[in-house]
Write a structure and sequence with these properties.
Helix content is 46%, strand content 11%. Strands 1, 2, 3, 6 and 7 form a five-stranded parallel sheet that branches. By secondary structure, the protein is of the alpha/beta class. Bound molecules: nickel (II) ion (NI). Nickel (II) ion binds next to strand 1.
Length: 304
């Protein structure tokens, strides 16, 4: 009996102590709750204030980015110094670190079968939008050789091409054959288009595709960009049947192919078929990725 009552006594003491200490903790718990709520609200405000729209950010990589390590032109197009004027803001610093840590989107085309889809003569409101939608849905990337005179009215399309990690190339100002103009004319066609593209806020193109493929080796001294021709040509400019365009591509394509197509409706409709036909065998990469081109590379290329 005595043992039992002792135990009861012990347990009564214990429960009183517990009640006391819990009661004693209440104000501390309230304080802790308030601190947590403040931290939560401050973090939420900082996240809310992170740049939501990358349209307005400078997209030209800092020169120093080109010199260190392997070149990742697409992952590095946001310069952390420029988007984080207040670099003490931990939330923004963290966001930048996260962006930098993203793996480069480039598959190694030395070991993986890659193809470069290219679309010339755009941008065009309807077909470019359709092409970009198809590429995005399939995690595919392509290269758009745009005409300078069309760029000014299509800034959003140019930005979207770039933001989806597609490449933008120069296809001259107004599609003049370079066999019909002089050296000054060639320089003007190229530089005016470079300027129009840069003005939209995307990096200056590294690639040039001559209109009609009209090109002489000596023209490189005036073009001053890598010249990109092709080795697969479905002649989509002459076809209005999307299935037919897709069929020729499927027949001609090989690992390392550069496929020339045009930014037009029949081709935009052919693209989902092409992607479906080829996606189990090939990675869809930009021309610079396919050829592993370094910034400011020169040369003439028809495929890998
Ligand atoms: Ni063209």
């Amino acid at each position: 009996m005595e043992v039992v009552s002792l135990r009861r006594l012990e347990s009564q003491k214990y429960s009183t102590a517990t009640k006391k200490s819990v009661f004693y903790l209440v104000p501390q718990m309230v304080t802790a709750g308030v601190i947590l709520a403040v931290i939560f609200i401050v973090t939420a405000i900082k996240i809310e204030n992170l740049p939501q729209n990358f349209d307005n950010l400078p997209t030209q990589p800092a020169a120093s980015l080109h010199t260190k390590g392997p070149v990742r032109p697409y992952a590095q197009t946001i310069n952390p110094e420029q988007i984080a004027p207040d670099s003490n803001d931990m939330a923004i610093v963290f966001a930048n670190k996260f962006l930098e840590a993203l793996p480069p989107p480039t598959p190694d085309c030395k070991v993986v079968a890659c193809v470069a889809l290219t679309f010339d003569d755009g941008p065009e409101e309807k077909s470019t939008t359709m092409i970009l939608d198809s590429l995005d849905r399939n995690f595919a990337h392509a290269t758009f050789f745009v005409l300078g005179y069309k760029v000014a009215g299509s800034q959003d399309l140019i930005k979207r091409m770039h933001q989806s990690n597609n490449e933008i190339g120069n296809h001259s100002w107004n599609h003049a054959s370079f066999l019909t103009i002089d050296r000054a004319g060639i320089q003007h066609q190229v530089s005016k288009t470079q300027d129009a593209i840069k003005k939209t806020g995307v990096p200056a193109p590294q690639l040039f595709r001559p209109p009609y493929g009209d090109f002489l080796v000596k023209m490189q001294r005036d073009i001053k960009l890598a010249v990109i021709l092709w080795n697969v040509d479905p002649k989509d400019w002459d076809k209005n049947n999307p299935a037919k365009i897709a069929e020729v591509v499927k027949k001609q394509v090989k690992p390392g192919s550069i496929i020339v197509m045009h930014d037009k409706m029949a081709t935009a409709k052919a693209l989902p078929i092409i992607l479906r036909d080829l996606r189990t065998k090939y990675k869809f990469v930009t021309v610079s990725q396919l050829l592993n081109l370094k910034p400011n590379a020169k040369g003439v290329y028809v495929g890998r």
